[in-house]
């Protein structure tokens, strides 16, 4: 398992790694939780098709050209390999060393479409936006499978076990699950002020 953006700033995915799994923490600079510093932020020093799982939490908003890193993740994954991506959908400006992006519900499919242009055949298994819990953040969570030909090997989805989310996508279902147009902050503001969006 590779963890992109593994530096322990406000916590780490390392304690959640299943027993027996070899975990390698990658980052763009040295720090707590980092096993390997990347010389090139768009090149992973691993052979094509050699990795079972890649995870990344609260990192891709700091990657200037995250779509290049997405294709690099696909390159190193095995055909039935998974990529778990967690990035902010809203939240305050925070530089590590830059803060460039926020991800909305269509971001997952946009990344799949980008990868198709490069000759890959990934599948978005699921995506959703989390609810705020004890802080200001809503995160966009998505899980990708490298090769659609191995889809049958991965029947389970997080969305089958959680209920507290918005704008979910589940492979095989064309419509958004629990769709909401207003981000949670805006919905709260609308309730407080009594504002309603004008009808067009």
Tell me about this structure.
By secondary structure, the chain is of the alpha/beta class. Helices cover 16% and strands 24% of the residues. The protein contains three helices and eight strands. Strands 3-2-1-4-5-7-6-8 form an eight-stranded mixed sheet. The protein starts with a strand and ends in a 7-residue tail after the last helix. The model has no long low-confidence stretch (mean pLDDT 92).
Can I get a quick summary?
The chain has 200 residues and is α/β, with parallel strands linked by helices. The protein has one domain: 3-Layer(aba) Sandwich (Rossmann fold). The chain has three helices and eight strands.
What is the general shape? Answer: globular
Gross CATH architecture:
3-Layer(aba) Sandwich
What percent of the residues sit in helical stretches (DSSP H or I)? 10-25%
Spans with pLDDT under 50 lasting ≥5 residues?
none
Q: What is the CATH topology assignment?
A: Rossmann fold
Which structural category do the helix and sheet elements fall into? alpha/beta
Q: In what order do the strands lie side by side in the largest sheet?
A: 3-2-1-4-5-7-6-8
- Strand tally is 8
* Terminal residue distance: 49 Å
Sheet of most strands: 8 strands, mixed
Percentage beta strand: 15-25%
